Amino acid sequence: MRSYVIALAILFLVAAAGSAGAQGFDAKRHMPLAEVEPGMTGIGKTTLEGSSIVEFQFKVLAVLKNAGPKRDLIVVRCSGANLEETGIIAGMSGSPLFINGRLIGAVAYAFQWGKAPICGVQPIEQMLRVSDEKPWTRTVKPAAAQAGTTSEIADVESRLAVLGAPLTGGDAAATQAFAVPVAAIGIGDVPPALLGRDTVDLRPVQTPVMVSGMTPRGLERLRQCMAPMGLVPMQGGGVDLKRLPAARMEPGAPLAIPLVRGDINITSMGTITEVLGDRLYAFGHAMFGQGEADLPLMSGVAQVVIPSLLNSFRIGAPVHEIGRLVWDEQTAIFGRLTKERAPMVPVTVKIAGPGAGVERTFHMEVVRHRRLLPMLASMVVGDSLTAQSELPRDHTILYRLAIKPVGHDAIVRENMAVGPDADMYLEGQIRGVVGLMVENPFQNLDIESVEAEIQIEPSSRLAEILEVRPLRNTVRPGQKVPVDIRIRPFRAEPRWIQVEVPIPADYPEGSFRLTLCGADEAVRAEMREVPARFRPEDVDSMLTVLRRNERRDQLFMRLEAPGAGVSIGREELPNLPPTMKTILSDSARQQVSGVALPRVSKQVMPYELHGSGDITVTVDRHAPQP
Q1: CA–CA distances in Å: residue 552 to residues 88, 547, 610
Q2: Residue 489's CB: how many other CB atoms inside 10 A?
Q3: Which of 45, 68, 239, 480 could form a disulfide with 252 if both were Cys (CB 3.0 to 4.6 A apart)?
């Protein structure tokens, strides 16, 4: 029986060794790392202008063992092709290096402040191990009962677990509390700028990202967001395809991965390292390093190299779609050359104003990438606002967003945002909703489309609540309380407005607090009072929360509830007797929390109100008639 156990373990080790091997490695075409020694020389291939592949020379300086987690690195010094002047160029990632006609690897790493064109080379053996196979889906089936005892089978499983083999078993349900962030329900908050990366280590050669159709402000914000990913957005432009020679799909040719295309284009670019049948390897390092991917692959063209003391870079442009990027690891990106196209998310933006009769429509497609989609979809919408001209200093944005997840009704938001950061608020709405759909604990949803209709007004509708004053404190149930509110519109003198607050006919006698406030304050108060409403338990309840649309041009009148209750999960039990509330609150039930449910009435206002005011209202069945 023990021999059976040993055989299983050996079988697993052999399978693991086979899966770790480089696919398509050909000793005649590829040079194994074991043969690479310091002092050896060879040639590299890359593209600096057009589609012509040029050669440069290199000399091996060192072979660094275990430079990364179980990964080795070759260090070389390059010469020729003006690299002595430019240094290693952003865009050269993936440029293949050959010794005696055999491919040893790809240009992948560099020192940003290096004085000489010295770079780190990703060995081709390590690159060819990247595949679109999913090794973790292989499972170890337990042996039949007659093949061994339970203890022996357990021993095999424990050994394989130590070796890192995936074991079968059901997925454990997530137990962590999950709440919908305020940015996804209408209270925008712009995250702080992301920190930059260290600039003194040998690190992946930066990947240039060609950007066209975007405003300078949008381009700068894109740089801030992409810098931590090693991506360098820069101004680019399209090319006249009629004047270009046919794109070359071979080692040393440019490779493009479009992230956004249409009226705005955002395209990352590098160099092809190897093509084996329908398999393509490039970059020599990760683009995002998140494993499985599904992004478009395009041939590219180099336009010009810009030398720089900080970091020289190559400007280029995409040409023709050639397949799909299907895997993205630390040692390479891996694509399939196919006629099948990677799906993208259409984003449509219709804008009117601020001038009379000024209307424009923008059409873009954004990659279905869980990390990039929320950021890029929100950015291209926000940047479209200023494509024609800068927003007026004082402005109001009226918008309608329709974000449709696949298989579900669209999430529709009709609301307003007031400057000076109205565009950032709008972007926060898109980023919050899309981000929560594509990344949540229940089911990551694909986005079918994003549509935005926007009206820009050249004036601010902002107003602040300064004072609240009741005209009558005591009323009967079913009557209305007249209230004067002193507000201060933006850049205008304060003035009084009057509203009438309805008192429900079923209210008991007593004194109750009445709060008058804007939409943001009302939603925050509701989140404190009834937190269970904002803690979805599944995809459907999450979408229900996202469909909330509290308009910001409303006055919220929140009348204190006559009683209190509890919620069990998302089930609310208001107005419970005190004894029952105590019993439920002290029980062993999970997710039991107190609930205070004020009666809320709303009134449309010409302003987006901020601030709040409280008064006390006394309900008396014998109060005099108004």
Answers
A1: 52, 15, 9
A2: 16
A3: 45
